[in-house]
Write a structure and sequence with these properties.
- The complex is a heterodimer of chains A (288) and B (296).
- Chain A has 288 residues and is an alpha+beta fold.
- Helices cover 34% and strands 24% of the residues of chain A.
- In chain A, strands 1, 4, 5, 6, 7, 8, 9 and 10 form an eight-stranded antiparallel beta sheet that branches. Chain A has a five-stranded antiparallel beta sheet with strand order 11-2-3-12-13, with helices on one face.
- In chain A, helix 6 runs antiparallel to helix 7 (221-238).
- With 296 residues, chain B is of the alpha+beta class.
- In chain B, the strands form two sheets. In chain B, strands 8-1-2-9-10 form a five-stranded antiparallel beta sheet. In chain B, strands 3-4-5-6-7 form a five-stranded antiparallel beta sheet.
- In chain B, strand 9 and strand 10 (218-221) form a beta hairpin.
- The chains are: A alpha+beta (288), B alpha+beta (296).
Chain lengths: 288, 296
Amino acid sequence: MTSIGDYSGRLPGIFTALGVPSFSTFLAAAAPELLPGNTGAMGGGGSAAELGAHGTTIVAATYPGGVVMAGDRRATMGHMIAQRDIEKVFPADPYSVVGIAGTAGIATEMVRLYQVELEHYEKLEGVPLSLNGKAHRLANMIRGNLGLAMQGLAVVPMFAGYEAADDRRGKRTKRTVQRGRIFGYDPTGAMHEEKYYHSVGSGSVFAKSALKKLYARDSSADELVRACVEALYDAADDDTATGGPDLTRQLYPTVLVVDAEGVRRVAESELANIAGSILETRKSNPGG
Amino acid sequence: MAMQFYASPEQIMRDRSEYARKGISRGRSVVVLSYAAGVLFVAENPSKALHKVSEIYDRIGFAAVGKYNEFESLRTGGVRLADMRGYHFDRRDVTGLGLANTYAQTLGAIFTEQSKPYEVEICVAEVGESPEDDELYRLTYDGSVGDEPGYVAMGGQSESITAKLRDGHDPAQNLHDALALAAAALSSVGGENGKSRTLLAGQLEVAVLERGVTGRAFRRVVGAQLDKLLDTPTKASTRSKSADVSQESAPRGSGDPVDTGEAARGAPPAEEDVPASGSAVGKTSGKGAAAKGSQR
């Protein structure tokens, strides 16, 4: 077993050996202590759920040219607000995004590992993973967290990406349709594709219901950005763990759009306008 | 009782050196040089799939000549090491110097301990804030490492290619001129009776490490973009062409969830609504896809 600590200056054999182009598989062999969840045995059988902060609601929806994912900015510990400006939605690679609800510490580490995983594959193999491949890889990582999930440290991710020409050598095959796709998961790693919209986290019931009414299949990206922000507003309206737009601190949801051009983050100024207009509408009709 | 013939250590090392040098000199050459907007890699390589130039990490590229299986295993090791360091510490903590040291140790150990040395020569390049900050490390089969000033040529007849580069290299060159110099240097050798040849776009593997990019700076220059750059345009159009690199490549890199100040490192900063890097990919989905797919 080799790790960065006892590393003698030259590349140990495991670095140059043939192997699966997966970073986490490599890490498990070369430096298992660096993998999330391998930080030592958990003592006792009790719940660890109150140990760390929890991130809450994520929504995503597809439109003809891509997919939008948005997350609120609140993290809670029990009844307390642990953080007001947490980020729960991240670019996973240039054509996909991942949002994670649940135990913040584990979620953040998992996203970090997942990002390296995708980049590592692309560098070693010369081509990026297919969108399905990326989605399965995430399912696998969630499954690896099952032990911690049973102690209350569950993470529930959502993955979305734009499926471009993701086959070998960049040539498009007939099988690949260029479109945005959403994948949902449960804490055991079960994966399911959501066709139009999806939400995870404590406020997901409200967010999804709101999105159901706001969603139209032929929306534009801009309309969908607004719909997602509004769905998060509705989640925050009824769920204490979900944060609404914070005008005093200028904190708005994280919104990422993925289309044929890649991942882009919706500008804060744009979100401020959207949040402002939603609040204006809600003044006369609080239920939306 | 069988007696082994005595061979002096000098003799053994000399034999190994000669063996490795012979293997390397048979291969086609690679040129790495700094230019105004980054570091340019140009390899004479007719294969579209077996690369001599590749990405290691955000600001670090790798170029090699010699035996493919040998430098490929070094490249794989480098990517694994860089990804592991970046994951363990931070993306900024992965440096070209660290990687060059590791390669030097590895090559040195192989040279002295194994019966056959690696027949490879590699260059680890790290793009800096300015051409003066670029780091080009040239590593040879025996593990010796040199910090090269602005340009490196490796492979068969590297001396005469280096001489060409020395004459024409200027760190303030734009991409078009730098590529022209590299192509001229590569084609200056290997022709009949020592004359120069003409190298076509299909025989060259070209990539750059772009200066001033957040996240992954490695881009392959392929297809129409490469054809355009290899032409001899007027001075005026040269400038726009060198700017094309960032436009034609797909947005790269991924964010770092911990670094919330810059959470969307792959995506553009929040103030910018449209990534400049994405435009051409969308415009020409076929070509953009090819460019993306070929970033391997």
